[in-house]
Amino acid sequence: MGGVVSRDDFMWTYDEQPHTSRRKEIVKKYPQIKELFGVDPSLKWVIAAMVAVQVFFCWLLQNEDWLLVTIMAYCCGGVINHALTLAIHDISHNTAFGQKRSFDNRVFGIFTNLPIGIPISVAFKKYHVEHHRYLGEDGLDTDVPTEFEAKFFTSPFRKFVWLILQVQPLFYGLRPLIIYNKLPNDLEILNFAVQIAFDLVILYAFGIKALFYLIFGTLIAMGVHPSAGHFISEHYVFTEGQETYSYYGPWNLCTFNVGYHMEHHDFPYVPSRSLPALRAMAPEYYASLDQHQSWTWVLYSFVIDPKMGPYARHKRVASAPQVLEGRHILRKYWEGIFNYFAIPEISRWISSCISAKKTD
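Above: the chain sequence. Below: its structure as tokens.
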């Protein structure tokens, strides 16, 4: 125990991801599961309350001692902000307003992002879709570590440092820019602008301690923190032959049931609130699979077990090319505004006047 990792490559597999076939089999046997698809009507209200609580804590901590602010950021703010990142995960599957209101889901995701302090919502959505569609595929699933991460973070100490550096915007945040560098879209720019504006309002209204409480809480809860155990527990291979794992313990109450991860990958359009009901409908498909009992134990095992490390992931050859250009959802809105105020016509008139002067 505690030695250098024993693996020197990813676990390459040439089989289709297991969730596709299991989904078909479960739906055939239990068609009533489709009734769980759709919207979680409580999600938006729970998130609004969490955002309000974080702003209240900013007010409460603005003149407190730095030590208390730091402790609160780890024990309270970090837990709430990590939960909000997982709420963004839920919203990315359109569970706040439904599949037909994608734009409303994206805008609500930007609102959910506010206490997190770092703009992640829109970018997460565009990469998370690929994670589900191309699970483990080389160059498409940015949840899989890079070769550098896998080769460098091999000892217990280095793996511990790697866990710390999972915080946004380091390895977990920068990895997509290295593996699959998609061009930013207009909603990402809006996400960035709104987030910076909110951070400046918090700084102006409550001071640097309040802003530190939000951002430090986000960062510390993404690394060595019980909430962050799901990053390792979800797809790192603790049992040969099993690619995805669930956890059914009490931390699900603080993380929008992200522990029900096998169920989520089988049915990504089932809201997190309904995942326990999904498992109860088809228990025989999940009871025999290995599951985790503790996210804290997962983090500890990952550090000390030589079998575990960034290489302990299933990987597949890419089945599709990378698509770098994104969809600009806001384009039709600002083009409509431009047309309403005749800006294209005015631009053409100015250009024609300039051309006429040059001719003269």
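Residues 59 and 206 are 6 Å apart (CA to CA).
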